[in-house]
Input
Amino acid sequence: MGTDAVTSHVDVLIIGAGISGLSAAWHLQKHCPDKSYAILEQRAQIGGTWDLFRYPGIRSDSDMYTLGYRFKPWTHEKAIASGDAILNYLNETADENDIRQYINFNREVLTMHWSSEEARWHVSAYNSETGTTENYTCSFVSVCAGYYNYKAGYTPEFEGQAEFQGYIIHPQHWPEGLDYSGKRVVVIGSGATAVTLIPSMADKAEHITMLQRSPSYVVSRPAEDKIAQAMMKVLPASWVYTLIRWRNVLLQMYMFRSARKNPQKARDFVLDLLKEELPAGYDIDRHFTPSYDPWDQRLCLVPDSDLFQAISNGSASVVTDHIDRFTSEGIRLKSGEMLPADIIVTATGLDLHNFGGARVFVDGREINSGDVMTYKGMMYSDVPNMSATFGYTNASWTLKADLTSEYMCRILNHMYKADVKICTPRLTDPTITPEPVVDFSSGYFKRAEHKMPKQGSTKPWRLNQNYALDILEMRFGKVDDGVLEFSNSLQAGERTSAIAAE
Output
């Protein structure tokens, strides 16, 4: 691997050109027009998740009135949108705002080194086109690379899988042009990916089976928002977008709080809806009644009842059991039942990581992401001049991504006015105790809990998971809050603030 000796410097270096990275770029252009920036994207295209995943039926699991950007109204008919439609929306965003010119594609960030003496980051990135390592410096890093490994998903080892004579596929790496017509397909998993794949493949496959160890909560909603479409005929798109966006935000907040306050009532409500969706006598208790409460894991959304229709017409089925082993013909279950298969899809989750997979150092000390605490869900304790975007787990990712970008700009503008170079979240209250950053029982979060940042027991180290509260705190709250340390020398440890308000 060669090394490019040329070092490029910008004020802000954005890691990733997906939903979060484009949001950061737009907000920098809007609110910090004097700041130079560049984007490093490890892939050859923008879009992140929406360019990576190519499996049948790939779509949003949130409505696009909240998954879309605050600054760019979603005007398409379908609120639950296909992956292609979302990718087009992101490309439109990049092109309408001339963002693409700032993106360096095929750059995988390897290391980020912070120097207090220089008050800047030194970033190395591998250029997969030239086979060289390039060096960048910046005053501030915005990590917008998501929270999972793009190179490989999570797939457990199954006994006997080498014996299987068909295809074993992880949805993260779907083979282009795969013909599953007339094939027997088994999808292992019961999360958002599985419930998307099942109805999308059911019309061509001979039969498709969702094999799950335990059920998930699954709810249906219309793919199109009829009220929004009617309003679009008489009102400006921006008005409709704002109104429907807030309607959906408030409804989601109400449902989440109600579920946490009265989980049994929420459980009964979801299960009663299922009785109307599935054939009479269907074993809902076995296949669609989880052992956990609603919103202990994210609810799975299906548009226009497509999963339930596939089950009802017999083209798809659900099996709840444990895998004993793979065989040459398919999967043998603990119960002794055999599931014949030509294709097995392992929709078994993601491999989570932080910092876009890069190693991070502060003054020579490597940062273990599992040891830091997250400040307002967007910065890390004792890590200077870095923001990181992590969306909501109980609402659309983009809601928090936009707020994170806004707050980063507020910090940068405050630093300019105060004539300081360094901003560092400092945890000085010994009574604040660490807790898991995500209060979910989902397997992929539990597997990665040891390497995920922690949240604190009180604000601003504790996540709100509430868009309205975050707006108040991040859009209107004080930046110089006594927790962020503004300085020109971390070595001295002296906090400097030239202004009390922006």
Observations:
- The radius of gyration is 24 Å.
- The mean pLDDT is 91.
- The chain has two domains: 2-150+352-487, 161-346.
